[in-house]
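hey so u asked for the seq, here:
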Amino acid sequence: MLEQFIFVGVLMLVALLLGIVMIGMPWLFRPKRPNPRKSEPYECGLQPHGESWVQFKAQYYVFALVFLVFDVEALFLLPWALVYNAMPFYAVLEGVLFILLLAAALVYAWRKGALEWM
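ran it, structure tokens below
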């Protein structure tokens, strides 16, 4: 029994060392030619202008979160829709309840103005 744990420990040690070597080798052998041009931020081939720290409106993040919620909703509803005919009645009711909760969340986000793109 102890030999199996030793084997797993050696395997974990080899995996850890392999990961360290794989990360360390490019860092060790990379070309080291610093250049002020290389340290400039790249903006699609255009000369950068303005400050690099720009404040974004929090509304963009809220919009992305609302999108993510309804994207996950579609992910959960797909298996439910595929086995709809084979489900018992209570499972159909649970699915309808899930859809109603998400519809209520959509109405709430709509009324709060989270879906307005300005």
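The first helix runs from residue 2 to 29. The CA atoms of residues 64 and 95 lie 24 Å apart.
lmk if thats what u needed
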